[in-house]
Amino acid sequence: MNEPVMTLQRGSTPLLISLPHVGTAIPDALKPLFVARALQVEDTDWHLEPLYAFARELGAGMLVPRHSRYVVDLNRPPENTPMYAGANNTELCPTRFFTGEPLYHAPFADEAAEIARRRDAWWRPYHETLDAELARLKREHGHAVLWDGHSIRSELPWLFDGRLPDLNLGTAGGTSCPAALRSALMGVLERQDAFSHVTDGRFKGGYITRHYGRPQQAVHAVQLEMCWSCYMAERPPYVIDPARAARLQPVLRSLLQAVLDWSPDA
Fold first, then answer.
1. Fewer CB within 10 A of the end CB, N or C, for the chain?
2. Could you report the per-residue pLDDT of 28-83, keeping only the tens digit for each?
């Protein structure tokens, strides 16, 4: 029996949390194609599901994939266009580590066919579920808010210069959610002094934020990209640091509470 490609836990509020890069599974049939290092899935958004576990108490839903971003990147457009112009990007079916080295022993024999197969097997079901759940929340509550949660190593020269701020809020330049919601979230970040932060900096939001954030249709989206250093070790075996996580979670809780306190009618 095939295992599900994702888990959806429905909540009781308009808020849905998507964690598209927490999966670690690589199908057995694909493993021989990858270099040995890739099987350690080092570019995973580690530990976000337990880190955001408190959100269930707030009534948020959560969508969690099973498979690694190395299989298919759920936060890339289906046509495989680059997300960030003028910068190194990883693809719909990534071919390189975040450090720039190749993920595979050799190129795909038929790249277009392989990408289409993975898109149909893993990308499409995730997005069909995401779209349907946002539509359900909108019907039930009058609006829906999608929180797209991510994390990344704080320094990755192949992808960006220097060191990232700790917390990187993305609203596609203010287009994926109303100005009032963006301001409320920025206010939460400005009132805390434990973590550096930026809004719509290097990470403005990937495909999920840009595609689903449609304020004019009462569906709003926000991305939060966090540095691993906020809550975990940035070297293998990438273990979570309970002390750091305990310092971070109140900030995350305040951000999600600001989403729930916000009303599109205010």
1. N
2. 999 999 999 999 999 999 999 999 999 999 999 999 999 999 999 999 999 977 66
Q: What is the pLDDT of residues 33-48, one digit of tens each?
A: 999 999 999 999 999 9
Range 6-261 classified under CATH 3.30.365.10: no
Q: Which residue has the tokens 């070790």?
A: 233
Contacts of 104 (CB under 8 A, 6+ apart): 33, 34, 35, 38, 95
* Residue found under tokens 């600001």: 258
Token pair 């849905």 is at which residue? 16
Which structure tokens are listed for 100? 């720039």
| pLDDT (mean) for 16-22 | 98
Contact 76, 207 (CB under 8 A): yes
pTM of the model: 0.95
Is the CB of residue 77 less than 8 Å from the CB of residue 83? yes
d(CA 204, CA 225): 9
Question: Is 60 exceeded by the pLDDT of residue 1?
Answer: no
In order of 34, 62, 125, 187, 220, the CA distances from 211 in angstroms are: 30, 18, 16, 25, 10
C-alpha–C-alpha distance, residues 212 and 130, integer Å: 9
What's the CA gap between 87 and 95, in Å, rounded? 16
Q: Which two tokens stand for residue 55?
A: 């959100």
Structure tokens at 257: 């509470």
**Other C-beta atoms within 10 Å of 171: how many?**
26
Model confidence at 90, pLDDT cuts 50, 70, 90, reads confident
Q: Are 203 and 165 within 8 A, CB to CB?
A: no
The answer to whether 22 and 91 have CB atoms below 8 angstroms apart is: no
